[in-house]
């Protein structure tokens, strides 16, 4: 009898998984099909109802697990005048938008961004968030920021391909020689480079390197969505554990936003590694066999 009950539970679980996958594929087809009549907004998913379509903002929609957010382009470029890719390192991501006077660490916490202007600021933090996006100099994808009401902070929204059907959001005007993120674990091919004693020497050695492992040139799950793509550019990771420095060459994508990254700053499992410094960098140096 017990074996029969277990068998029925397993069948039910498999049926639910199949239903979820089917619904996920259906939603993906709806959202990705340029001919669909659905416009951007909040739509019901599995278990959702008409309440989803009443949610006007991306933050409200994402807070409800029964709802799905379908991104859309702004009506005019004027609505998103700020490309964060062109901002200084301390301001170049949606989550770094914060109230005047707050630190980078405070930007990670709830309440980093108030709904009303403070001090000499004429524009509220929320307004800055809704007027900003991120797109690299040659990137084909834009990532609008969105306001998260439950966290009272700005966040990065869904990546979508900027095409003729969308209001145009221009790429960053300047090309950077390198872009670095501290306390980021990059998930992709890498190889140890022996010898460098500081970050500058690490970058120089990686740029001079000519022999990389075969996996640098093979398709792998490098994108944020887990899509298999081939790395296009060189990068490097500078890591210091205690007093021991290590330099790694990375096979990276042209647009850092497409990578699957892990933020180690708030990661409990990473604390045991005893890192005193960790930086992942993207270079404008094409990767060629």
Layout of helices and strands:
Blueprint: H1 2-32, E1 41-44, H2 58-62, E2 67-70, E3 82-83, H3 125-130, E4 132-134, E5 141-148, E6 153-156, E7 160-161, E8 178-182, E9 184-186, E10 190-193, H4 199-208, E11 220-221, E12 228-229, E13 233-241, E14 244-252, E15 261-263, E16 275-286
Parallel strand pairs: 3-4
Antiparallel strand pairs: 1-2, 4-5, 5-6, 5-7, 8-16, 9-15, 10-14, 11-12, 13-14, 13-16
Please, could you describe this protein's structure?
It is built from four helices and 16 strands. The longest helix is centred in the first third of the chain and has 31 residues, at 2-32. The chain is an alpha+beta fold. The relative contact order is 0.11.
Distance between the termini: 61 Å
How many discrete domains?
2
Helix content: 10-25%
Q: Mean pLDDT score, rounded? A: 75
What's the count of strands?
Answer: 16
Order of helices and strands: HEHEEHEEEEEEEHEEEEEE
């Amino acid at each position: 009898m017990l074996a029969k009950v277990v068998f029925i539970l397993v069948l039910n679980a498999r049926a639910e998984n199949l239903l979820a996958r089917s619904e996920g594929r259906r939603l993906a087809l709806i959202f990705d099909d340029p001919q669909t009549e659905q416009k951007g907004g909040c739509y019901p998913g599995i278990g959702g109802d008409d309440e989803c379509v009443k949610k006007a903002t991306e933050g409200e929609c994402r807070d409800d697990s029964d709802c799905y957010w379908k991104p859309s382009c702004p009506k005019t470029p004027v609505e998103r005048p700020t490309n964060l890719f062109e901002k200084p390192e301390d301001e170049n991501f949606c989550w770094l938008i914060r109230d005047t006077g707050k630190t980078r660490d405070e930007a990670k916490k709830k309440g980093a961004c108030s709904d009303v202007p403070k001090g000499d600021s004429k524009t509220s933090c929320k307004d800055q968030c809704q007027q900003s996006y991120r797109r690299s100099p040659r990137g084909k994808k834009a990532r609008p920021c969105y306001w998260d009401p439950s966290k009272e902070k700005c966040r990065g929204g869904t990546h979508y391909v900027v095409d003729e059907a969308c209001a145009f959001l221009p790429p960053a005007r300047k090309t950077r020689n390198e872009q670095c993120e501290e306390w980021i674990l990059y998930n992709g091919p890498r190889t140890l480079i022996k010898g460098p004693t500081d970050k500058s020497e690490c970058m120089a050695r990686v740029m001079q390197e000519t022999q990389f492992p075969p996996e640098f040139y093979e398709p792998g799950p490098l994108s944020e969505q887990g899509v298999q793509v081939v790395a296009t550019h060189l990068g490097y990771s500078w890591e210091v554990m205690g007093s021991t420095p290590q330099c790694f060459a990375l096979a990276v994508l042209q647009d850092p936003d497409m990578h699957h990254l892990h933020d180690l700053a708030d990661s409990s499992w990473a604390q045991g590694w005893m890192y005193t410094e960790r930086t992942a960098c993207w270079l404008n140096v094409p990767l060629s066999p």
